Queue: 2 jobs
Job 1
Amino acid sequence: MPLNPAFSDIVELLVAVPDGDEKAVAAVRERDAQLTKPPGSLGRLEELVEFLARWQHRSKPRLDNPMVTIFAGNHGVTDQGVSSFPREVTAQMVANFTNGGAAISQICALHEINLRVFELALELPTGDITREAALDDQMCAATIAYGMEAVAGKPDLICIGEMGIGNTTIAAAINAALYGGTGADWVGRGTGVDDAGLKRKADAVDRALAHHAGELDHPLAILARLGGREICAMLGALVAARHQKVPVIVDGYVATAAAAIAHAVNPASINHCLFAHVSAESAHARALQEMGQTGLLDLGMRLGEGSGAALAAVMAKTALHLHDNMATFESAAVSGKSD
Ligand SMILES: O=C(O)c1ccc[n+]([C@@H]2O[C@H](COP(=O)([O-])O)[C@@H](O)[C@H]2O)c1
Ligand SMILES: Cc1cc2nc[nH]c2cc1C
C-alpha cells in the first residue's frame, strides 16, 4: 500500500537529519587528554561527554537544563488481559508523577532534572490492536507532531520515557512487525503478569499481526496499526530533538520501540540517541541488538516512566562535571604518560 501522505513531513524529518559536530568532539578529546587520569580510564563516561558535544554541536557541552519527559497513553489491547494492573493506573500514576510520589519524581528532584508529563487523551484508549487499528493515520501523524513540542523548552538533554498500562504488549507487537518472529519472541512480564498472562500477551500479538497482515509494509503504518499515542509522541520528540540539537536518552523497552520506528525509516536518524539501560523486560536486549545498540546501564530495572533514562542522565551530569572541573596534568603538576 502507498504510504499515507499524512506521513510525508515526518518521513522527511527522519530522512534529512543533520550530522553530528565532529569538531566539537575533537575539542572535547583534546581537553580530555590533558586531565589527570590515564587516557581512556573513565570509559563510557568519556564517550558521554563526546556524545553531548557531538549532538549539542558545542565544544563545551552544557547540562544546565536536562529534562525528563513522560508521555502517557492508554491502550485498547488491555481488554485482552495483557497487564497485571487496570487501565486507570495510567491516569493515577500521572497524578503521582506531578505530586512527587513516583520514583521518577524523586530521581529528578534529587538530581535537579526537570520533569514534564504529557498526557495523551487518557480517556480515549487506542483501538484494540487484535481487532482494529490502534490509531488512524491522521491521528498518528498529529500525535507525532504533538510530541515534537517536548523540545520547545530548549532542554540541553532530553530523556524520553512513558507510562501506559498495556504498552509492553504494544512494544512487542511493533518489534515483531519490524523484525519478525512471533509474539512469544517479543513479550515479557511487563508489570508482572503470570504465565497465563504471558501467554495472553503472546496470543494478542500474534492475533494483531494476523489481523493487520498486508498493512504493515512501512514503519509508520506499523506505528498507526499497532502502536500507541505515547509511542507516536516519543517518536516526534526524538526526531524534533535531532533537528533542535538536543541529545536524547531513550528509556526502556517501550521507549526503545519508538526509536525502532525511526531506525527502520532511516538508521542514521537515531545516531543522537543513547540507550539508557537494558531493561529486565526479556526482549529488550534483542530489540537493542536489532539496532546495533547496547544499553549504558544494566540494573535489572523494568519500571518505565523514564527512570532508567534519568539515571543515565545522572551519569552524563557526572561525566560532564569531571570533564569541566578536573585538574590538568599541567595545572596539578602531575607527570604525564612516559611511554
Ligand atoms: O520500559 C520498560 O522497560 C518497561 C518494562 C516493564 C514495564 N514498564 C512499564 O509498565 C507499564 C506497562 O506494563 P504492562 O504490563 O501494563 O504492559 C508501562 O507503564 C511501562 O512504563 C516498562
Ligand atoms: C504502579 C505502576 C507504576 C508505573 N510506572 C511506570 N509504569 C508503571 C506501572 C505501574 C503499575
Job 2
Amino acid sequence: MEQGQGYLERLLKWAAEIGISDSTCCGDSCLGHSLDVSYFPSAGGRGLGAARDLREGELLLKVPKSVLMTKESLLLKDEKLSLSVNDYAHHSLSPTQILAVCLLYEMGKGKISWWHPYLMNLPRSYDILATFGEFEKQALQVDDAIWAAEKATLKAEYEWKEANALMKQLKLKPQLLTFKAWLWASATISSRTLHIPWDAAGCLCPVGDLFNYSAPGEEPSRCESMEHTMHDLVNEDTSGMADVEQLVSDSRRLTDGGFEKDVDAYCFYAKKSYKKGEQVLLSYGTYTNLELLEHYGFLLNENPNDKVYIPLEPEIYSSCSWPKESLFIHQNGKPSFALLSTLRLWATPQNQRRSVGHLVYSGLQLSIQNEMFILRWISKKCTTILKNLSTSFEDDSLLLSAIDKIQNLDAPLELNNVSSTCRDEICAFKANVLQKGERSSMESKERWRLAVEWRLSYKKILVDCISYCDEIVSSLFHQNNSSQK
Ligand SMILES: C[S@@+](CC[C@H](N)C(=O)[O-])C[C@H]1O[C@@H](n2cnc3c(N)ncnc32)[C@H](O)[C@@H]1O
C-alpha cells in the first residue's frame, strides 16, 4: 500500500511536470484544485473525488495531446519500435493489437521508459471476461454469457498469436511474450482507453483514466439541476453574472469528456454537480452488465442499461418487424416496448393482424384478454428459464455472502445456509484453485464472485419481470370481472 502511495505521488508529480492540470490557474501540482485521488470501496476502488464543490459542466481536467499514450506518440519516441511497427509485414494487425504490442514493449523498458511513472500505476491484473478460466465461465450459468466469455478468450488468443511475429522481432522479454502478458495488455486497452478521432485503438490518458464509471442516465436531468444552479447564482450577487454566462456555455456541452482540437488536449467536464469529497464519475458509454464485464471487468448492482433477452420462437420474430435486439426485458423487470408490441400482434389471430397493426406499433393494448395472455406467457417463460438454471436467485444471494467470507483456502469454509448445489460449487472452487498460488486463487475468487454476481443480476431481472407481469394480470383480471358485473 505504501509503495502504491509512493507510485501515485510520483505519477502526480510527473503529470504536473508534463502539463496535466485540473486547474485553469498555474501551479506546480497536477491535482488538488478540482480533483483528488481517493479510494471508493463500493464504486471502483481508486478513483477521483471532488476537491471542492463542483458545478455541472465545469472543466475538471485537461490532458495535453503530447502526453496521451497512443501508437503515434510511442513510435515518435522510439526509432526501433517505429521501424518494426511500420514494417509492411505487420499491416494486417489491428490498431488495438499494435497498441498492445507497443504497451508491452514500453513495459519491457522498465525505469528508462518515459512513461514509467504512468506504467507503474496500472493495475497488475484484470477481471475482464477473456481472463475467466473454465470454472468461472461455467459459473455464469447462462449459455449466452458462457459463450460470450469463450468467444472473448478465443479472440484474445487469436490476436496474441497474430501479433507474435512482431513481438519476437522487437525481442520482448519471455514473460512479456506470454498469453498472460497479452491478456494484461489487451485488458489495459479495453478498460482504460478513451476515444480519439485519429486512432481506432483510442488513447491511454494518464490521470484521466482514474475516473470510475457511472451509467449514463443515472444523473438527474440536466435542465432540472441547471435551473437550480442558475437560481442560486443569480441570487448571490452581480459578480455571479460571469459565472452564469460560463454556466450557460457549459450547459451546451453534451459529453463529459472528449478530445478538443482547439486546445489540443483531452478535456473532462463534470456531468453533474458534486459536493466536496464525492466521487466524480465518467460515463464510458451505455453498457449492459455482461458488456461491462466483457470490456471492463466489473458490473453494477443497479445498472439502468442492463437487459435480459428471452428466447422467442421463430414465428414470434417473424410476426413483427422489430429488430431482435429490441425484444428484451428491462433492468426493472418491465418488458420492452418492442417485446410487448410483438407479442400482442403474435397473440392476435393471423387474419386480424393487419387491422390492428397501427395500434400495436403505437404501443397500445389490444384487449384485456390479449394483454393477460401475453403477460402470462412472459411470466411463464421467465419461470421456465429460472427453473432450468442449476441454482435459484435465493441460492445465489447466500452463495455471494459465503464467497465474501472466504479469506483464504485453509480456513474452514462457511457452508451453513447455502444449498447443496452451492456447497458443491464452493468445494469445486476450492479444488480448482488448490493447485494455484495464493495470489492467483484470490484472483480466481474475484472472477468467480463476479460470475455469481452477474447471474444474480440476470435472475433478479427475471424475478422482477414475473412479479410485474403477475401484478398487472391480477389487476386486469379484477378490471375485467368488474366490467362484466
Ligand atoms: C478507467 S479505470 C478507472 C480507475 C481504476 N479504478 C483504477 O484504479 O485505475 C476503469 C476500471 O475501474 C474499475 N471501475 C470503474 N468504475 C467502476 C464501478 N462503478 N464499479 C466497480 N469498478 C469500477 C473497473 O475495474 C474498470 O475496469
